[in-house]
Amino acid sequence: MNRANWLLGRQVQPSAQRSVSAETLIGELNELHLFARRVLDRAEAAGDDRTVLAGVEVAGKNIERLAKLSALGEIEQRLAALEHPEGKENDHEHSQRG
Asked: How many domains does the chain have?
């Protein structure tokens, strides 16, 4: 089984699904996108216009997905910063309360 089939056929357990980060998903989607680009390049070299058009469609969808996951990654980073603030602001708040 090649890498693309393994990635496509991989099952994520429901409990583990929540712990998969956007960064991990972006990495896997990048691998799939590279695979699609290689197929697209081979189809173009072979003059297979039908496969080229299908490859362009897949590559375009991958780019859309990457954009969405990148936004999700930014949101995760912001949430993590809010959940675990570091720096003097937090110290300042504690000194005012106590």
From this structure: 1
**Residue 40: Cβ within 10 Å count:** 19
Q: Report if residue 57 sits inside a domain.
A: yes
Report the C-alpha gap between 55 and 49 in whole angstroms. 10
pLDDT (tens digit per residue) in 33-53: 899 899 999 999 999 999 999
Q: Is position 15 within any domain?
A: no
The closest alpha carbon to 22, from 58, 76, 63, belongs to: 76
**Domain presence at residue 5:** no
Range of the domain at 27: 20-97
pTM: predicted TM-score of the whole model, two decimal places: 0.53
Instruction: Please give the structure tokens belonging to residue 52.
Output: 């080229």
Structure tokens at 4: 């693309």
